[in-house]
Amino acid sequence: MKPKIRPTSFQDYAALIPVLERNRLITTMSREEWQHIWMGNPFRDLFHDVPIGWALESEGGKLVGTISNLHSLCYFKGQLLRAVVSSSWAVDTEYRSWSLLLAKRYFQQNNVDLLLNTSAGPVASKVYPLFAKPLPCPNYNRQLVWITDYLRFAEAALRKKEIRAPALLKYPAAMALRCLNTVRQRNSHSWREGQILSLAEFDDRFDKFWSALASRSTRLLTLRSCAALTWRFRRGIAQKQVFILATEEQGELTGYMVLLLRRVEDADLQEFRIVDVQVLDEQPGRLRVLLLAALELSYEKDVDLIRLIGFSETKRRALGHTGYLVYKEPIWPYYYRVQNPVLGAELTGTEAWDPSPFDGDNLWFL
Description:
Layout: E1 4-7, H1 13-22, H2 31-39, E2 53-57, E3 63-76, E4 79-91, H3 99-107, E5 114-117, H4 124-127, E6 133-134, E7 142-147, H5 150-160, H6 166-184, E8 195-199, H7 205-216, E9 221-222, H8 226-238, E10 242-249, E11 252-263, E12 270-279, H9 284-301, E13 305-308, H10 313-319, E14 325-328, E15 335-338, H11 341-346, H12 362-365
Parallel strand pairs: 4-5, 12-13
Antiparallel strand pairs: 1-2, 2-3, 3-4, 3-9, 5-15, 6-15, 7-13, 7-14, 8-10, 10-11, 11-12
C-alpha cells in the first residue's frame, strides 16, 4: 500500500513534533502554543474551510511527513485577500520520495487568494519554483547589518573563519569595520524627527494607524491591526524577546518598529532583528528616527548588531543612511502563487511588495 495524505488535525501534535525533530526542524512549542497559531488567529472564522496542513501517513497509520498551512489576511488596493503560508515541510528518510506530494497538495489549494513560502531551504528552493514564482524583489536575500559592538562582532567573525589569534586581531578588524561604516554613514544629523515611544504591548492606537496605512499604501501588506499584531507577537512579548518602538506626532502614531532579540547562530553574539517596520507614506525621516532609537536600545541592552531582512526598496534606501554591512543569503527563500490572473499581473513588479519576516512562518518558531 502507498502512504496516504490527509488533512492535519490538532490531535496530531504528539505525532507531528517527532517528525519535525527527526528531520532537524526542532521546535520547543508546547501544544497550546502550536494550536495558538490557528486558534488564536483573530480572523480564524474566515478560514473555516482551509486546512491547518497535511499529514503523510505510512501503510500502518504512522505519521511520517507533514506540511503546515498557516492562515493570514493580506490587503492590497482595497481588497482583503485570504493567504496561506507553507511551513514545517518534513518527511522521514524512508518516505522522502513522497515529499513532492505534500508540496503539490499545498499548491493545489484553490479556495485562497495567495499562497506564500517565505523560508525555503536548500530542498524547498528547488521544488517550489515548479509551482510558484520567486518574489520579484531582487534584494530580499541581501540582509543589512548594523554593528553596535565592533570588538565582539570582529572577534566572532574571526573565530568563525578560524583565523589565528582572534582576541588580538579583533582590534584592527573592529577599527576597519568602524571606518567602513563611517564612510557609508550620511545625513545622520537629520534623524531626530518626532517623538519616540517604547511600548510594552500593542493597543487600539495601532488600529487607527493600520487604517491610515492601508488606505495610503499601494503595496501588498499582511494585515496589521492591534489584534493581528498581538496574535503574532504574543509568544515573543511573553518571553521578553520583543521590543516595540513607535513614532508619535501630534498625539497620533505615525510609525512603529518591532525588534526581536535572539542569539546569532554559530556565534556568541546577540542581535536585534527588525521583523516589522511600518511608517505612514514610507517617510524617510520616520524610518531613520526609528532606526536610531533601535541603535540606542541596542547599546542599552548590550546587543551586538541589528539585522534587517527584506522590506521595500524605499525603506532600505532610507535606512541605508547609516553605516551597515550587507550579507547575501545563498538560497532564495521567498516564493508566491496567485490564483487570480488579474491580481497576479499586478504583483509582478517590485513596487507592489513590502516583504518582511512578518509575512511568513519564521516568527512562530524563533
